[in-house]
From TrEMBL:
UniProt keyword terms in alphabetical order: Metal-binding
Keyword DNA damage: no
Positions bound to a divalent metal cation: H65, H66, D104, H330, E334
Domain of life, source organism: Bacteria
The protein's name in its UniProt record: GTP cyclohydrolase 1 type 2 homolog
Originating organism: Megamonas hypermegale
Amino acid sequence: MIKCQVVMNAMDAFAPRYLAEDWDNVGLLIGSPAQNVHKILTCLDVTESIIDKAIAEGYDMIVSHHPFLFRSMKRINTDKPLGRMIQKLLSHNIAVFAAHTNLDTTFGGVNDVLAQKLNLTDLKPLTISYREEILKLGVNVPNDYADAVRQAICKAGAGFIDNYSDCSFQFVGEGRFTPLENATPFIGTQDKNEVVTETRIETIFPAKIKNRVIKALLKAHPYEVPAYDIIPTQNVYHENGLGRIGKLQIPMLLTEFVKMVKENLPGDTFRFVKGNDKLVQKVALCSGAGVEFLDKASMQGADTYVTGDVKYHEAQHAQELGINLIDAGHFGTEMPVVKTLATYLQNENIKNKWQIEVTADTSAQDVFTTI
Ligand SMILES: [Zn+2]
Ligand SMILES: [Zn+2]
C-alpha cells in the first residue's frame, strides 16, 4: 500500500505536468494525495462502466488518459450522468488522476506508442511545444574540494548531455579576495588580499532543477561565499511536442500500409483518403483528434498522415495537399497507451516495493460501430 501522492509523483516523472497544453486539466481530479492506494486501474476514459468495474473489483485509484473533469461545473446534480459518476467515486473513495496532453507529448507516451504500433523509426515530434531551458554553471573551488563539489552538483542532476552523464570541464587558475571586517573566511585573514590556487568547474543543467543544484553546490563548497555564476544558454537538448514524424524501414504500397495500421490498432473506426501515388515511407501521426497538424505534416514532407476524428472538408484538404490521410479513430490511436501506462506503474511498483496491484483496462470498446 502507498499514498496517492507517490503515484502522482511517479506519473509526473513519466508525463510531467509542464508538458500539458495550457487549456488542459491534468493531475489528481478527484480524491486526496494523502489517501491510501492498493489497486490502480489504468484506462482511456473514466466512463460509468469503468467506475462500476472499479467499485466491484476494489480499485481505489483510476489513472486515465482523458480528463474525467474538464469543463468548469457550477452544480453537481446526481440525477445526471456526470453527477452520478462523481457521487459513486466519492462514496467509494476512488481517486481519479489524468495524464492527457502531457502523456500525448512525453517521450514514450501516446504518440510514441502509436508510432511503435505503425513500425515507424527515426521519430521526431511533429510540433514543438516545449524546449528545455539549459543553464551553464561556473564555480571556483579550492583544488582539494574540486572532486567533492563536482560530484555533488552532478549528483543533483547537473552534467547530463543526451546519453552522457557527469559532463564537466575544469581548469586551474588564481582566485583573489580580501576578507572584510565581519567575514569568517575559510582561507585568509581580515584586510589582507589573498591569492589562492583554485579549480574552475563548468557544467550545464536544466533550469527546472536550479534550486537543487545550487543547494548541493553551497553544501559541498567550503567557502563562506562561493564564487559562482549561472548563465542562460541557447542549447537545445530536449524538445517535446504533439504528434510524431518518422519513417518506415521498408516503403510499402498504401493498401499494404492501411491494412497494417488497421490490424495493429484496436477499435471499429477506420477510413482513409488516397492523396498520392507514392510508396508510403515518411509517415506523420497525431493520436486522438490531430487533423489540425495536417499542413505541418505535409510541409515536413510526410507522404501519409495518421490521426483520428477526421471531417469531410479536412479529408478534401488532404487530397489537395497530395498527402494520404488515415482516420484510424480517436479510440484506435489512443487505446494502446492504456497498457503502456499500466506497465510503467507495474515496473515502478516492483522497483519501489509499493506492493500494490496495477491493471490495464481491456474492457473499453470504440464508441462507434462500423457496419
Ligand atoms: Zn491524447
Ligand atoms: Zn484523446
